[in-house]
Task: inverse folding
């Protein structure tokens, strides 16, 4: 590992089920806003301090809806053919989190007065954030606060907030102001994107309806409150104020010393995007009324029941390292909070936690994130592959723009169109087509969902296979091997190369799968096979070309070095001692000109090693070790996608210290802010990568020949670890300690799998076995 990637000291208190902030420091506000984010895959909110600050404090008071975006024209100094014309940005929507609180005429903020006690907790088991503290005003008024909030994973349009405040040494007037504030904007958009269309109050429900200027998407928000004093059954209704872009509610309540005042606030959001037509304002008002009637406790119960089921299926238990137990649970919760579950939205690189990467979806989904959901919550995995089917027409259009047949999926997008102006690292990453197909193949393998394959999957596989047949060619000087030139692989520091090893192998997999599906489809559903062929105007000759290309694919290997060259030129470039790079010059993408990055043997991230994982069965352990030895000293890990892959391969080849240290970096990348950029949002691919480090790394899980294979070991610092896998409708729990592994079939009648080279069969009558670790 690089010296500048050594593991860091924890920022937050270590606890297996909670992220605990014990001291309030406003200088860390922007980072903590990200860490204490909440979401449900539809709505996301940064961990804002609701009452705000008296002074200027760094931060981004952000709330987001997955897939709700504005377009803005991309301005080029020099435009060239087929450059994308429009960018897309996930919008910071109306602010519903802010609250103002006054004791008589003194406003409460935590950066004035004095905090006697303080804690903020992200309760990972329950998916909520709480703050408890005692605050003393500059004039000596003292009050006890308990603040709690959650975004419902069960009722996806709903958020809920509860404020409890008790005056400890005074009686007086407490004034509370809440609002729906539509005067918001994104940091990286030139113009304010949202225009207010309607606002008002109906039956004590505040509402605001806005529309985006360019995309013409609508968003509506409804808000309702319940406010009461301890010992009284009656509720207090506020005064309402309607302003140009804001609707406010205000209470002035006489409160006695030690009398508890409780405010519950409910909000509901609804949007229509380009694929939807619905009455969003009517829906938002209806939903918020339902939430208010249901009440805070009932909504929280429904939410926590959803999470209870999630943790029962998904939890990874680590015995012997509290920091890593905390880290992996934090990662899994944030993945759940960020992932779209409707088939029309995806999971952004930063989730719903910040404006980094503008809320864009990348190929990270298929390669890193989908496996986490596939083997625990396959219904979510299905929604992710359905997103690619639902944006297939956009991919077709992009292929036409580049004069290709078939379909070309984008590098970064929200709505399905390519939105990156930097083609060297975006459009040139043709491997994304194969990544999408790899995800489809793995989804069908693990779920046996043939209905999806027939109705959706085959069409994606064939249309994207057409592009490979056009993109590559049979090159005489390579012995008529099928070569793919001028592409960028996963390593974005080597752009526009010939025969990127990852790309060629993945394209071969893709083409063989397309041919395999043609034969299967013809036998299993002949009428639909012919129907789809007619729809696509697919000729038998094309299928033959796919097979010829796959059979003759050029697969890079260098006999002298005994490795797989990353591309045709990499091993001939000038070596560079990356240990000598100053920390201040990292990541290189922000500190070196591309021409200097491209000229050296420097990798941004795992490329060949990622291939060694995805198509693991094609490579021997010896070859994986040789590639690890060659590429590890050349990799800066400037991408958060890198460390987890190095950890997994290190486990396989026996480099246990590398595996553990890279896992530590992956599992706590955001909690310990390894890259000093958490304030911009979390790293969802790395979060899923932490799960891979355990399951694919330490437990050695691979899936090939329609079988699960495990080669488990336990890191020296651990006593044991435990996780579950759902495969073909069978749930298998794996518990590993220093000496042995216990496999338990929790669901399903029968399952066969491999423990090292030993085939094991479990059934409902004999559902557990204990075997020694090799």
Result:
């Amino acid at each position: 590992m690089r010296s500048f990637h050594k593991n860091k000291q924890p920022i937050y208190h270590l606890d297996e089920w909670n992220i605990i902030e014990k001291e309030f420091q406003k200088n860390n506000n922007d980072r903590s806003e990200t860490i204490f984010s909440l979401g449900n895959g539809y709505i996301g909110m940064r961990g804002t301090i609701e009452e705000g600050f008296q002074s200027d404090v760094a931060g981004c008071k952000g709330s987001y809806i997955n897939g709700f975006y504005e377009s803005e024209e991309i301005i080029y100094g020099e435009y060239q053919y087929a450059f994308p014309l429009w960018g897309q940005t996930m919008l910071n929507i109306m602010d519903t989190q802010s609250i103002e609180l006054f004791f008589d005429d003194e406003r409460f903020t935590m950066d004035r007065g004095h905090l006697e006690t303080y804690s903020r907790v992200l309760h990972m088991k329950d998916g909520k954030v709480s703050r408890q503290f005692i605050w003393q005003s500059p004039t000596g008024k003292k009050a006890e606060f308990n603040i709690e909030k959650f975004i419902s994973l069960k009722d996806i349009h709903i958020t809920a907030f509860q404020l409890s405040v008790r005056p400890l040494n005074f009686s007086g007037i407490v004034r509370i102001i809440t609002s729906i504030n539509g005067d918001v904007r994104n940091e990286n958009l030139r113009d304010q994107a949202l225009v207010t269309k309607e606002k008002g109050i109906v039956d004590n429900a505040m509402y605001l309806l806005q529309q985006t200027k360019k995309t013409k998407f609508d968003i509506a928000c409804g808000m309702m409150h319940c406010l009461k004093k301890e010992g009284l059954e009656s509720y207090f209704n506020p005064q309402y104020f309607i302003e140009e872009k804001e609707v406010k509610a205000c209470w002035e309540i006489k409160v006695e010393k030690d009398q508890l005042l409780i405010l519950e606030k409910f909000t509901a959001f609804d949007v229509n995007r380009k694929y939807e037509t619905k009455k969003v304002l009517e829906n938002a008002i209806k939903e918020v009324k339902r939430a208010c009637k249901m009440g805070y406790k009932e909504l929280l119960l429904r939410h926590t029941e959803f999470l209870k089921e999630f943790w029962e299926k998904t939890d990874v238990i680590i015995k012997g390292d509290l920091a890593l137990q905390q880290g992996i649970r934090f990662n899994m919760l944030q993945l759940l909070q960020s992932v779209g579950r409707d088939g029309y939205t995806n999971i952004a690189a930063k989730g719903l936690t910040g404006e980094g990467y503008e809320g864009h979806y990348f190929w990270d989904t298929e390669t890193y994130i989908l496996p986490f959901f596939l083997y625990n919550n396959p219904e979510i995995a299905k929604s992710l592959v359905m997103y690619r089917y639902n944006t297939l027409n956009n991919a077709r259009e992009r292929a036409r723009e580049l004069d290709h047949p078939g379909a070309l999926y984008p590098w970064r997008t929200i709505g399905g169109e390519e939105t990156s102006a930097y083609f060297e690292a975006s459009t040139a990453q043709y491997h994304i087509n194969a990544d999408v197909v790899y995800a489809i193949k793995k989804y069908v393998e693990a779920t046996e969902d043939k209905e999806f394959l027939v109705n959706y999957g085959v069409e994606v596989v064939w249309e994207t296979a057409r592009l490979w047949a056009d993109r590559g060619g049979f090159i005489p000087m390579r012995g008529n091997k099928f070569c793919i030139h001028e592409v960028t692989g996963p390593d974005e520091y080597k752009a526009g190369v010939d025969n990127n090893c990852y790309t060629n192998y993945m394209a071969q997999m893709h083409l063989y799968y397309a041919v395999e599906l043609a034969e299967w489809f013809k036998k299993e559903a002949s009428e639909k096979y012919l129907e789809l062929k007619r729809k696509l105007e697919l000729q038998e000759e094309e299928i033959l070309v796919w097979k010829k290309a796959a059979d003759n694919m050029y697969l890079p290997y260098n006999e002298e070095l005994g490795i797989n060259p990353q591309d045709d030129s990499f091993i001939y470039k000038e070596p560079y001692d990356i240990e000598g790079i100053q920390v201040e010059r990292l990541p290189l993408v922000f500190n070196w000109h591309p021409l200097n990055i491209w000229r050296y043997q420097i990798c941004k991230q795992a490329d060949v090693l990622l291939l060694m994982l995805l198509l693991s069965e094609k490579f021997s352990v010896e070859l994986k070790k040789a590639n690890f030895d060659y590429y590890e000293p050349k990799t800066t890990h400037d991408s958060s996608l890198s460390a987890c892959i190095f950890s997994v391969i290190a486990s396989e080849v026996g480099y246990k210290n590398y595996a553990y240290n890279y896992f530590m970096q992956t599992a706590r990348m955001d909690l310990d802010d390894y890259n000093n950029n958490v304030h911009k949002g979390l790293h969802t691919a790395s979060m899923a990568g932490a799960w891979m480090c355990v399951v694919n790394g330490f437990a050695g899980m691979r899936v090939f020949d329609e079988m699960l294979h495990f080669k488990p070991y336990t890191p020296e610092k651990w006593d044991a670890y435990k996780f579950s896998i759902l495969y073909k409708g069978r749930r298998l729990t794996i518990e590993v300690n220093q000496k042995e592994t216990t496999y338990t079939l929790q669901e399903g009648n029968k399952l066969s799998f491999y423990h090292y080279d030993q085939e094991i069969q479990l059934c409902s009558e004999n559902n557990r076995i204990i075997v020694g670790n090799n």
Q: What stands out?
A: The chain has two domains: 36-74+83-311, 315-698. The domain at 315-698 is CATH 1.50.10.10 (Glycosyltransferase).
